[in-house]
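Record type: ASSEMBLY
Status: queued
Input:
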Amino acid sequence: MGYSIKTISQKSGLSQYTLRYYEREGVLPEVARDEHGNRCFHDEDLELISLICCLKDTGMPIADIKQFISLSKEGHSSLSEQRRLLQQHKVHIDEKIKFFQTFAEKVEHKIAYFASLEEQAETENNEA
Amino acid sequence: MGYSIKTISQKSGLSQYTLRYYEREGVLPEVARDEHGNRCFHDEDLELISLICCLKDTGMPIADIKQFISLSKEGHSSLSEQRRLLQQHKVHIDEKIKFFQTFAEKVEHKIAYFASLEEQAETENNEA
DNA sequence: TGTTGACTTACACTTAACTCTAAGGTCTAC
DNA sequence: GTAGACCTTAGAGTTAAGTGTAAGTCAACA
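Status: finished
Output:
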């Protein structure tokens, strides 16, 4: 039978607007319809949506995701190209992790700095 | 004497447009001017810009950065509030790092999966 | 039977964060 | 003395990624 757009919205955390937008934009391949023309999602769709969210949330632009997904339709010949794109993205994610770790440290230092300023201010208050 | 906007643009990696935009929006506190009305940045500005970039690049929205920066003008009384905001943001960064690490693994698996499919396809090719 | 709720499409609107353009001022070098 | 490289502001335009609205279909329920 398949899932309604409402169900998929709840399961994926994407709004119904966003799901329709993704299909419209070709990010999500055409979703099957029931006899009334209503979208009828299946488990494969849900899996694909999960991959799309993963790519999106790690900073891949919608346009790139679309390109990646569209390769799936071309079957075996595009497997290595898909793999290449994922590998490229993996490098990107790893860089981002390093970057974030560095910045987490910076922020940590800044926090310590603010704490020391506060302490200093308090000491001065007590002396006055 | 201070640095021109061009110099700061080069040093910070932000475009001149962006630097003016940040000042306009109050993300960057008012920059000093020379006798011709041209912006005249100093080392403190550069430091602040570096902090702003750090916050921005770790996902803090411009509006929140603005709020954080504006607290600086209020002196000692706002130190603990500034520290609180930074701590909050630090939590956010740490979550993001974890999230990215999980997704890096997912992508890794996907890559392995594609590689196995390719291998399979190749074997079938050789047999045919 | 009529109204409520879930769905559809097409299209307009929003938001964040820039990015560019136009029109103009000032300084330096030939 | 004028061309070129700087800078200025105000305000318009762009891009990505949604988000919302209007008008309509359809099925189930009181």
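Annotation: The CA atoms of residues 35 and 86 of chain A lie 37 Å apart.
Annotation: Chain A is about 75% helix and 0% strand.
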